[in-house]
Amino acid sequence: MPANLPPQYYKAEEEYKGAKTLPEKIAALEAMMAIMPHHKGTDKLRAQHTRQLSQLREQLEAGGKGKRQSIYRIERQGAAQALLVGPPNAGKSSILAALTHATPHIADYPHTTVKPEIGMMPYRDIQMQIVDLPPMEGDVRKLPYYNLLRTADAIVLVLDASGEPDVEALLLIGDLADGKVFTPLLDEGELPIGGVRARMLIALNKADAADAGYAVEKVREAVSRRIRVVAVSARDRAGIEPLGDALYDVVEIIRVYTKVPGRKIDLGAPFILSRGGTVMDLAREIHRDFADGLRFARIWGSGRFDGQRVERDHVLEDGDVIELHI
Ligand SMILES: Nc1nc2c(ncn2[C@@H]2O[C@H](COP(=O)(O)OP(=O)(O)OP(=O)(O)O)[C@@H](O)[C@H]2O)c(=O)[nH]1
Ligand SMILES: [Mg+2]
């Protein structure tokens, strides 16, 4: 701290520290700079303040533009976005904590979660984004995150397996699954034409409870074979790995690696494609120019012999290594 700053400066600094709003902060900082004497001893401090001031002004401008974005507009990160939804207290936040490094609030009273909590789940050599949401109650369509339900890659309905199976919860499954709101994982051919396909799983949590078996049976019965049911215990970390496997499976993605001609296979970060993706889809994913100029590819994996030549419409499989020739 440079010496010989006048007392008024420190008074302005106090105001700056106590300021609650951006305009107050900016005003106090401007006052500090006006009071500051100009000499070599204050150069560094002046530079710091100038930087700070421009940051504050930028923040003010950014905040003033347009209307505030919803907290439920969550940008997809990693290979896929999966939501944890369900009735209060079922253990959604506990599952988020078990699947990721996130540290959401967890408590034995309902409505602990009031805003989305996000974590990244490491899975093999990729990551999937897991979003824990406030409890679902009432009409699904009226939820503030209804749009998120429609756009996410997967929905994990978390239910409490301890005690009596919750009638509300069973109704919720019906609501989500009956195709009116969106379409869960149905057998091939059952998918209504034009239906929104949401990939859904049910995580029956608190499977450690003595009477959990009954609820598991009841829920499995209620959904027949239409939705996959995974019994888990977030508390004991039981069933967490199978839940990760089920999630990876339900989002229907594949990992594809690329190889540069003449070099060794590089098992670095894979490209993510939808299941059924082709060589051409991979090229598009990498770069438009790649797709335009693609002649053929060589493949390692897929039960082919190493380096076999395949055409642009060849369907890729999880773990394939591809060398693109343009
Ligand atoms: N026995 C048992 N209790 C659990 C398990 N998972 C969570 N709990 C308990 O259930 C209560 C609710 O857990 P949360 O993770 O906060 O549940 P939530 O679904 O996020 O709750 P809301 O945010 O209020 O909707 C807490 O007391 C947890 O300790 C479990 O696997 N077994
Ligand atoms: Mg919660």
Provide a descriptive summary of the structure in words.
Helix 6 links the parallel strand 4 and strand 5 (199-205). The protein has helices at residues 7-18, 22-35, 43-64, 92-99, 146-151, 167-177, 212-223, 240-250, 279-286, 288-293, and strands at 81-85, 117-123, 126-132, 154-160, 199-205, 228-231, 253-259, 271-274, 296-300, 308-310, 321-325. A six-stranded mixed β-sheet has the order 2-3-1-4-5-6, sandwiched between helices. It has a five-stranded mixed β-sheet with strand order 8-7-11-9-10. By secondary structure, the chain is of the alpha/beta class. It has three domains: 7-64, no CATH class; 81-250, Rossmann fold; 254-325, Beta-grasp domain (Ubiquitin-like (UB roll)), CATH 3.10.20. Helix content is 34%, strand content 19%. The protein is flat and about 75 Å long. Guanosine-5'-triphosphate (GTP) binds next to helix 4. Magnesium ion is lined by residues 92-93, 112-113, 132.
The side-by-side strand order for the widest beta sheet comes to 2-3-1-4-5-6
Tell me the name of the CATH class of the largest domain. Answer: Alpha Beta
The CATH topology of the largest domain is Rossmann fold
Look at the structure and name the CATH superfamily of the largest domain.
Answer: P-loop containing nucleotide triphosphate hydrolases
Distance between the termini: 61 Å
Major sheet attributes? 6 strands, mixed
Number of strands: 11
The portion of residues assigned to helices is: 25-40%
SS element count, helices: 10
Overall geometric form: flat
Second rung of CATH, namely the architecture of the largest domain:
3-Layer(aba) Sandwich
Structural class: alpha/beta
The radius of gyration over CA amounts to 27 Å
Averaged pLDDT: 84
